[in-house]
Backbone:
């Protein structure tokens, strides 16, 4: 099991460029999410998905799009990158059982710099 | 508005002693709390959790205490080991968003030999 994988590990963009951060998991988890980590802010939820075809917004969704066409993949799209999106991005997955709680497994992160 | 707060950015503890990391929350709807550990250049890894119906949960050297009336939880590590040096994040979830975690800012724990 590779767990949760993220690509790329590092990325530098210019303001206005677009890109997609990839996330994949091989644990057959229903729930996937994207967080960003900024200094002094902890991790903040961007978007999440409770299954293929279902996505919803988290705490800081502006400037990001997601889609979930398969159980395994949950890409995060930046349509027009801004310096405020410079951050470390983490993807996470977990098994979802309605109201039962299950730990989230995190990927290694993507460090994004927007100039 | 920070709903989950870790007011100590850093903590230094002697090897073999007890490490106590603290976390406060403001949202009374939170009913499940977790601690994650993070090493540099890696993603957070789950450490221990506690439901609001309990006031203590233990797993080996790690114990989490929950004081609902004070909206406070703490993580105790006994005895502390050099490999425990990492950033520790407290996280919380409410009934409605079972998998939507709200994280604290993190506390960097350094264990000195």
Residues:
């Amino acid at each position: 099991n590779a767990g949760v994988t993220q690509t790329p590990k590092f990325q530098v963009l210019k303001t206005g460029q677009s890109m997609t951060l990839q996330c994949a998991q091989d644990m057959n988890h229903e729930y996937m999410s994207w967080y960003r980590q900024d200094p002094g802010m902890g991790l903040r939820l961007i978007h999440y998905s409770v299954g293929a075809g279902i996505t919803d917004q988290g705490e800081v969704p502006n400037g990001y799009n997601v889609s979930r066409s398969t159980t395994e993949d949950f890409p995060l799209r930046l349509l027009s990158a801004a310096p405020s999106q410079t951050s470390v991005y983490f993807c996470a997955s977990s098994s979802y059982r309605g109201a039962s709680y299950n730990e989230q497994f995190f990927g290694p992160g993507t460090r994004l710099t927007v100039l | 508005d920070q709903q989950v707060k870790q007011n100590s950015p850093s903590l230094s503890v002697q090897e073999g002693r007890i490490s106590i990391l603290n976390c406060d929350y403001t949202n009374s709807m939170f009913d499940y709390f977790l601690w994650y550990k993070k090493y540099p250049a890696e993603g957070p890894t789950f450490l221990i959790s506690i439901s609001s119906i309990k006031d203590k949960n233990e797993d080996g050297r790690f114990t989490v205490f929950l004081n609902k009336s004070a909206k406070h939880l703490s993580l105790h590590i006994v005895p502390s080991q050099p490999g425990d040096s990492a950033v520790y994040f407290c996280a919380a979830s409410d009934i409605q968003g079972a998998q939507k975690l709200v994280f604290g800012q993190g506390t960097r724990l350094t264990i000195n030999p």
In short: The mean pLDDT of chain B is 94.
